[in-house]
Amino acid sequence: MTPSKTPTRVALVTGGSGGIGRAVVMKLAADGFAVGVHYSGNSGRAQSIADEVAAGGGQAITIAGDVSEPTAMTAAFDAVEAAFGGIDVVINTAGIMILSPVATLNLADLDRMHRINIRGTFVVSQLAANRLRRGGALINVSTSQTLLQHPGYAPYAASKAAVESLTLILARELRGKDITVNAVAPGPTATPLFLDGKDEQTVERLTQLAPLERLGTPEDIAQVAAFLAGPARWINGQVLFANGGIA
């Protein structure tokens, strides 16, 4: 990664201390971005990621906040702008996944997932719509389960379907601002969020779904996010399914 005292582009990555979030932070830093590493609870992990960026010659700060709270996220945007002079890219990886059949879902879990996945995405998207610089990009995160429709994923997929609708409409609402808005929809990806609670047989079955016969990696998803954050200026209002070819 090339050191730069005056970064030409600045990114805020929500959920930057998570599996996909960390990979996104590291990829953007390698591409020359200064990065705000957002976290909600794990300050130590976020700081270690920022330290890793700095050790490679890049620039990063950590910021905390509940993505569903406008005051907290306004402060996060303020902190990144104060540190680096503005924000060009927001990549919204923060989210949770709770699996359950519809018939037995605890509605408290549904409310919690909706608060983070839907309200949180809306709060961050609203701030990005008003504060990204021209030539900027907002990338939200959906899931391939909106198409795959596997049993047990209905509550999660429903929350991410809302993310997709928000993303596609916001792209059209930002006409004239030179800001792209897209979503990445990962397939099965080897992160703690995905692997938690799954036995070996389930993981192996999901591994075989893709023609490439492996799980995705956080780095696979980070490559797509970085593409949308940088060179892909003619991709707008789209959902990119990064799932290795799962039908």
UniProtKB/TrEMBL annotation:
<keyword id="KW-0560">Oxidoreductase</keyword>
<dbReference type="InterPro" id="IPR036291">
    <property type="entry name" value="NAD(P)-bd_dom_sf"/>
</dbReference>
<dbReference type="InterPro" id="IPR002347">
    <property type="entry name" value="SDR_fam"/>
</dbReference>
<dbReference type="GO" id="GO:0016614">
    <property type="term" value="F:oxidoreductase activity, acting on CH-OH group of donors"/>
</dbReference>
<feature type="domain" description="Ketoreductase">
    <location>
        <begin position="9"/>
        <end position="187"/>
    </location>
</feature>
<comment type="similarity">
    <text>Belongs to the short-chain dehydrogenases/reductases (SDR) family.</text>
</comment>
<dbReference type="Pfam" id="PF13561">
    <property type="entry name" value="adh_short_C2"/>
</dbReference>
<dbReference type="InterPro" id="IPR057326">
    <property type="entry name" value="KR_dom"/>
</dbReference>
<protein>
    <submittedName>
        <fullName>3-oxoacyl-[acyl-carrier protein] reductase</fullName>
    </submittedName>
</protein>
